[in-house]
Amino acid sequence: MGETVAIIGYGAIGQVLAAGLAEEGGPRLAAVLVRPRQLDEATAALPSGVAVVTTLAELLATRPGLVVESAGQGAVREHGRAVLASGTDLMVVSTGALADDALLDELRAVAAGSGARILVPAGATAGLDGLGALKAAGLTSVTYTSAKPPLAWRGTPAEQRLDLASVRERTVFFEGPAREAALSYPKNANLAATVALAGLGLDRTTVRLVADPAASGNTGTIEASSAIGDMTVIMAGRASANPKTSASTAYSLLYAVRSRAATLVI
Prior knowledge:
This protein has helices at residues 12-21, 39-45, 56-60, 73-85, 101-114, 128-137, 158-161, 178-184, 190-198, 248-259; strands at residues 4-8, 28-33, 51-53, 66-69, 89-92, 118-119, 139-148, 171-177, 206-211, 217-226, 230-238.
């Protein structure tokens, strides 16, 4: 029997990932941690062999080889330590939580002690392999630009910077270090942290956040320069059921999970 996987969260990302893992021939979905109000819905939707639980202890009791977090930065803070302490690898989607140095240092220490690993998937971006190559050669600058429809920025500090309902042209409302972007926009700028962790770090990576009324989805652009050359990568994704998140995020996760069991990994 191959590796088993458990998921924390059953929102737009968790539902796509769970459906993908239900297919034959790959890692097996063992359990999903849901909010109590989602218990009946998830139990009806998921195969009978999948444990639908409301506590982390129940999730870990299924002894997964990998736990995938898809429930937001709060879930990383609440559950990350316990998952890693159990010796289980943790795949983090809400990477903005790792912009907190104290949390990241603690998670690394716990993982080192248990032999588990913290895994960061590409998410709704591309080009992290190229960014890693440029980093090895000597990065000099990295800028990540995230452009979304104005209303995708509702419920964030963007509302204090501009009137989202009245934006008529592409508007940059934030430009600063990745650390500030990831912590200030926890539901929108996790990719800022991912790009920063893969490249120049959270304080030397520049992030631009953009409200664009012409956008049909979410577009992320990485621009990087190094001693050996330059790179520009654009990933234009359609929004998911949650407009703050690109639909491609869930499929990037599915690809990363399946790759763990693949005989040929690219």
